[in-house]
Amino acid sequence: MQTLRVELGDRSYPIFIGQNLLDAGLMKTYIKGKQVLIVTNETVAPLYLQRLVTSLGDSYKLDTVVLPDGEAFKTLEYLNQIFDGLLENRHNRTTTLIALGGGVVGDMTGFAAACYQRGVEFIQVPTTLLSQVDSSVGGKTGVNHARGKNMIGAFHQPQCVVIDTEVLNSLPDQELSAGMAEVIKYGLIYDAEFLRFLESNIQSLMQRNPMLLAEAIYRSCAIKAEVVAQDEKESGIRALLNLGHTFGHAIEADQGYGNWLHGEAVGAGTMMAADLSCRQGWISKADIQRIRDLLLAAGLPIAPPEGMSAERFKELMSVDKKVLDGQLRLVLLQRLGMAVVTDQFDAAKLEQTLLAGNQLGECC
Ligand code: NAD
Ligand code: GLY
Question: Of 95, 170, 255, 353, which cross-links 91 as Cys (Cβ 3.0–4.6 Å)?
Fold first, then answer.
């Protein structure tokens, strides 16, 4: 097992990464009271719920909420199912919630924990690649609104994150690809050497080589922990973790939540951010080719949905959380391994990127 730590003063917490950690009972050290509510969904429950329950033993009053599966249910309406489970079973302020599932379950459980009785503790047990490398670490929690992705939420850090790499064996290929979009993001924004590791090993990673996947998860979490420790509430460097997300969130909202996976939208969004970075003259056409090759090898889309207009992109991007005083800010690449959050881009070039469709990266 490998351990990392998110250093946030009295809100610091460990990230445990290893095989079969679901059975290890690690999280018991981080449960302070006698009540536990496990939140999971109807896909993950039959696969892993019993193992988690068994590993917790009989020291707790244990209740479970099983949510419907899907991004479409990441709403205030379905969040109520968690509050119903807590209230019906008389959970008090010393309860601990455990999120067992992907990013949807993790974000909703964390937000419920942030709100219930003005804040209770929770633990992340992420079961998708995306949630293991990104959403379970850093304390961003929330739900979607019809007008914007993750618009209702709170920062609320977990007590610990338990990453069992074995559970990735049951993950559909498309979900593995979606998670790889966030892994690639870390290389692009922060670590050129990690990017080269991914380029060299992408085939084996997609074939789920356990050693390489564990390495990619560890390095991704290490970067995320480092960034979050510097800027928990995203007033600066943390915004870099949104490479491709402004475009991607617009795609998700346009297509209807769940129709494009979050990671797929981030993949296409990353290609759009790369295209604009290239038009700005910051990265080269050869750099773009490397990004395209890596995204394709990871099974990700490299163009936005056909027919999504520049006007529609602009309308949806105008509610992005990085908009400051009405000014759109984007995460762009200064070079491979180094990104910047900026409003210093040419509006005409952005227009060209939004219109480029499947020609992204062709004309810079
Ligand atoms: P998800 O939670 O919808 O999970 C994807 C699918 O995989 C679901 O059908 C799920 O039931 C299934 N699944 C989960 N674990 C499985 C397993 N081990 N075996 C088989 N199937 C399994 O999606 P996701 O990609 O994990 O997360 C996406 C969400 O995360 C989005 O809502 C996004 O906004 C959010 N997110 C949050 C942050 C953050 O910092 N909080 C960061 C990135 C993404
Ligand atoms: N996924 C972006 C962040 O956690 O800040």
Answer: 95
Count of the separate structural domains present in the chain: 2
- Tell whether 153 and 77 lie within a shared domain: yes
Q: What is the pLDDT of residues 187-243, one digit of tens each?
A: 999 999 999 999 999 999 999 999 999 999 999 999 999 999 999 999 999 999 999
Q: Parallel, antiparallel, or unpaired for β 96-101 and 121-126?
A: parallel
Q: Is residue 229 part of a domain?
A: yes
Whichever domain contains 241, its CATH number is 1.20.1090.10
Residue 140 CA: nearest ligand 2 atom is: 4
> Hey, which residues are catalytic here?
118, 140, 182, 224, 234, 238, 242, 245, 249, 262
Verify that 189 and 239 share a domain, yes or no. Answer: yes
> CB under 6 Å to ligand 1: residues?
41, 43-44, 47, 69, 71, 74, 101-105, 107, 127-128, 130-131, 134-135, 138, 140, 150, 167, 170-171, 175, 178, 262-263
187-197 burial code (b ≥16 CB/10 A, e <16): bbbbbeebbeb
Which residue's alpha carbon is nearest to atom 3 within ligand 2? 241
DSSP calls for 46-80: IIIIHHHHHHHTTSSEEEEEEEPSSGGG-SHHHHH
Write down the pLDDT at residue 271.
98
Q: Whose CA is nearest to atom 1 of ligand 1?
A: 102
- 121 and 61 in a single domain? The answer is yes
- Nearest ligand, CA of residue 186? 2
Can you give the pLDDT at residue 239? 94
What pTM does this model have?
0.96
Residue 256 is part of which domain span?
A: 173-359
Can you tell me the mean pLDDT for 37-56? Answer: 98
331 C-beta closer than 6 A to ligand 2: no
* Tokens read off for 169: 């064996």
CA distance 209 to 211: 6
